[in-house]
Amino acid sequence: MTMSGYGLATRIGSARNLPVFDCASGQIDPTAAGVIALLSHNGPAFNYHIAQTRRRYAASRKPLLTEKEPVESMFHVRPSEPDVPPMTFWRPNGTPPGPPLPALIYLHGGGWTLGGLETYEPLCRQLTNATGRVVIWVEYRLAPEHPFPAALEDTWNALDWIAANAGWIGIDKDQIAIAGDSSGGNLAAVTALAARDGIIAFKPQFQLLIYPCLDLTARQPSHAEFAEGYLLTSDLYAWYRQNYIGSFPDPMDWHLSPLFAEDLRGVAPAIVLYAGFDPLRDEAVVYSARLLDAGVSVEPLFFPGMIHGFLTMGRVIPAAAVAVRRIAAAIDALDDKQPSAKLILADVPGVVSIKPEHVGTAHRADG
Fold first, then answer.
1. Which of 278, 282, 288, 293 is catalytic?
2. To which CATH superfamily is domain 7-358 assigned?
3. Is 14 a catalytic residue?
4. Whole-structure pTM value
5. What pLDDT digit, counting tens, does each position of 258-317 carry?
């Protein structure tokens, strides 16, 4: 399998002269291709009952999970407040009780529909040890039983609870960042925008977006390029989106599609990780470019031969461990990152229009 020219990613990368784009080889990594072959007939199937689909998803991911790293401590919290979701906390190995640590709140992927602690605990343990941060898993409610805005409300309620209880948790309330992959990356990006606007009191130190869902119209070129044959098929992704959107009338509203937010100035610094053979690739590229244009510090982490979801496939994809190390290094370096030269996105062919006049409306421009 090859990818012709990397499409939009190459055009924007060349315009920005970002070295992260120079590593594009045009070839899918053999380990990623092996996972595609393994899961093509053993992944989520949306013609089953939702409970069966979730069991099937968890079972298909289990053989791909890396070993659980030892950590200093792990504990679960089920707050007494009825509107605050359950959470799990990991403290990095070798950090006995002492001064408060920085924290990373993690929102999992799975199309707002699937995914759970059993498929994400190995990654969360890796992240706490690699970053030296307390990692906090938020068990937000899932669609379709709980469509938008349930997951977002759970996230924001959890943030309030974490800030109020930072002292006994052992974290520094001024050094709390938010992270998420795929649909969790969507929730993290929306939360960063809400924090900028004062809609919530939480002010993230930074946002870590891992192959995030940012455009729920799915109109960027990479969606057509990788519509079939790369696990996150167009039909599967449409099912995920419909589960989450529910009856909400406007998929371009920034609470659903942060890519279409009118103004990105003043949001938290970002680390954006994306994969070359992922239908969501161009969303991450365009969002990174818009953040840079808005003067926001961005650290892009591009894995050209990888597929969507590869960070939770560490047993069979060595690049997953590399990605964790690069995330940790990016967190260390983020404060020194300076915005790149401005890019006018209108000059990049193939981009769905994100001009302000189209934000917040149901109209979709062809770009």
1. 278
2. Alpha/Beta hydrolase fold, catalytic domain (3.40.50.1820)
3. no
4. 0.88
5. 999 999 999 999 999 999 999 999 999 999 999 999 999 999 999 999 999 999 999 999
Comparing CA positions, the residue from 188, 217, 355, 193 lying closest to residue 283 is 217
Contact yes or no for 232/203 (Cβ under 8 A): no
Looking at 182, 222, 257, 288, which residue is catalytic? 182
Of residues 291, 222, 328, 261, the one with CA closest to residue 3: 222
pLDDT digits (tens, 9 = 90+) for 127-186: 999 999 999 999 999 999 999 999 999 999 999 999 999 999 999 999 999 999 999 999
What CA–CA distance (Å, rounded) separates 310 from 219? 23
Give residues with Cβ within 8 angstroms of 174, minimum separation 6. Answer: 205
Tokens of 273: 């990780």
Catalytic residue check, 308: yes
Out of 108, 146, 223, 308, the active site residue is 308
Q: For residue 182, indicate whether it is catalytic.
A: yes
Question: Which among 4, 10, 47 has a CA at the least distance from the CA of 348?
Answer: 10
